[in-house]
């Protein structure tokens, strides 16, 4: 029998979409029966109490959690979020219920034995409930008691060669799209770069270094499946400089209807025959494509690599081979001064694992040095850029201003010149001036 | 520039002076103790004091603060 | 319940301590066909909703079956996922950014058995454990935040609003009939732990009341300077307060006009609770995207200023989303995202076609951004 009645949550068991309520009931039942003979280190009925407190929130329309200041294991400034229930007598199993963030492998690839080992730790030392995955990308272990934190960390590091993720004023656990591991659009190996930088910056990830949170995300191409341009302080988006590769026979196969456009993404409706003029050439934002007889032509110099034609005809068109990445900076959610999209800082950076991605880390570290020095408490990089000016960021990164940095030049002429930019500087001799200009 | 020999005392003095009003500080607050040092040097030193068990972190989840181990009104309440 | 030590000795925390080792290396978890063909993929095709094939230069193929999953997931269910991976995929699997589970096999003749196995698995309550879908011009899984399951400042629930929405939109998870892909995201308060501000449709939990002040306990529980410093709009200042019994206590005063209901002060000070049954609810935003395809990424816009929390299934919210999706499905052009469609027909027409009321709350009045969203033109539609 269920420990708490949950009539409201029970209504979320019906319907086709996987029910988290059914899943929690399953976990509660498995714990109660304990057929595996696990020596539970937190209360056996923790999931029952979790459902109980959630039901109470459904009754009240209010949360029943309080924040705690626990930040991590000894010496770490992140990786754990403290959480306490505000009805501990009613739900003692979740009176202390802290989150543990666990570093996920790049690309979110797993093997079953590893996931089982993670669950061996978590079902014994925690609630057994997880998020696969949290919004930033970590594996989230949802709810354990303070005294289990070091034990979990010890087992993760000693037995599973796995570390905690980031939280607080740290570098947050970097996350990537699937990249070239399984995507033909990817212009670089996102998994490799994400893994490399995650390891290179473990100190910044685990110990507070910054005025506020800082996020890296890695997208293999301008389609941006991991949304780096919207939600990371530094966004690394794959791109290319040379020509889109064209297979003219495949172009004809699309025109002839032998291949479904857009990788078959529109199969659910009859949109009529594929019309290359209407669906590809006319939708090209730079109007740099045309047909010459049976040949598709692209004026690659004018292409802005929006990906539409490649997405629409993936068997006929491929990204170029002179690949690298663009770095955009300053994206964030609306708190406080409004939402910001990443702004282009470095149009093209080489991705070279042979020299430990020196071109990438150079930009990262110059940005960090500036932000650590100039950023106010709780000021995201994007806000600092707005406060100090885009030019200042170019100055600290040593990147030359370029028309690519703006969508349009400024509308106001209020240009602030620096003294050394004006011949002769600002110190002038008024007596000399008065020789020719009476008072 | 290296940190002065009594850097630890300087940090503890700073915390003591402010202790009447608050027990937790942002990392940047500690920069002001060592105006001639780069942020990275100060950060590494403060984090070292945490490693020695003298200071400790406190997190709001989104940002992290630093204070004397065990100080502050919430520490007792949480039984941590 | 006997304490079982991991080997950690609290008396000497630094003994044998391992730190800063990061995540496991991804290559340990690549299926062999992925490892062999990495960087050499030629093209992909969605064979049917939820089933993809990627073809490599070598001629190798990898077939992927994508399943929706609740982000809130039990260890027991994860073990079942592992069993499926062992049975069909040599133990390999992956998760997507949108909380989908992907099972990969290296030949077409393994796909049907995998699909059949996944389709048959249901929870006791009747819902699918592993619904196949989430590809192409349809609705993929919702990325979301914790909500009432585990957060101290949410204005609504995460898992529940998502379950209710995905039940309503389920056929579009398993179909590809829309003019383009449609991405829904959910965040349970305006701090947006999961940034939802660039989604085709965003569900956002929102508080409408400033925090209460528990004067009697505030100075005992909280450090006043930290509570003051936590406010991003500087709406909090120190104040003396006289309790009913005449005792004077140190406390705070809040400038309610300046409060933007972020809950940061409650994080620092438990004597400033913010949640409220009537005050809290849902904001709906529309028209954002993160892809650079055809036109640049764009932000979502607020189109419904408030819907009250209707536990457990939020019917007003799901029906409003359904109306917007149907209007979009019937009116937009192929390849046009929701935001592109709204911009082409004009937002005045968007409200009309989606049967949404335009209210004064939808006109921006927050700082510099606001002016740029007012109409500086005589070009509008009647």
Automatic annotation (TrEMBL), chain A:
Keywords: 4Fe-4S, Iron, Iron-sulfur, Metal-binding. Residues 294-322 form the 4Fe-4S ferredoxin-type domain. This is Dissimilatory sulfite reductase alpha subunit. One of its GO terms (biological process) is sulfate assimilation. It comes from the Bacteria. PANTHER family: ANAEROBIC SULFITE REDUCTASE SUBUNIT C (PTHR11493:SF54), SULFITE REDUCTASE [NADPH] SUBUNIT BETA-RELATED (PTHR11493). One of its GO terms (cellular component) is sulfite reductase complex (NADPH). The keyword Iron-sulfur applies. One of its GO terms (molecular function) is sulfite reductase activity. It comes from Desulfobotulus alkaliphilus. NCBIfam families: dsrA (TIGR02064). It holds the Pfam family NIR_SIR_ferr.
From TrEMBL, chain B:
Residues 7-71 form the Dissimilatory sulphite reductase D domain. SUPFAM superfamilies: Winged helix' DNA-binding domain. InterPro entries: DsrD, WH-like_DNA-bd_sf, WH_DNA-bd_sf. Pfam families: DsrD. This is Dissimilatory sulfite reductase D (DsrD). It comes from Desulfobotulus alkaliphilus.
Automatic annotation (TrEMBL), chain C:
Pfam families: Fer4, NIR_SIR, NIR_SIR_ferr. Its cofactor is [4Fe-4S] cluster; siroheme. GO terms for biological process: sulfate assimilation. It comes from the Bacteria. The keyword Oxidoreductase applies. Keywords: 4Fe-4S, Iron, Iron-sulfur, Metal-binding, Oxidoreductase. InterPro entries: 4Fe4S_Fe-S-bd, 4Fe4S_Fe_S_CS, DsrB, NiRdtase/SiRdtase_haem-b_fer, Nit/Sulf_reduc_fer-like_dom_sf, NO2/SO3_Rdtase_4Fe4S_dom, NO2/SO3_Rdtase_4Fe4S_prot, NO2/SO3_Rdtase_4Fe4S_sf. One of its GO terms (molecular function) is 4 iron, 4 sulfur cluster binding. One of its GO terms (cellular component) is sulfite reductase complex (NADPH). The keyword Iron-sulfur applies. Coiled coil: none annotated. This is Dissimilatory sulfite reductase beta subunit. It comes from Desulfobotulus alkaliphilus.
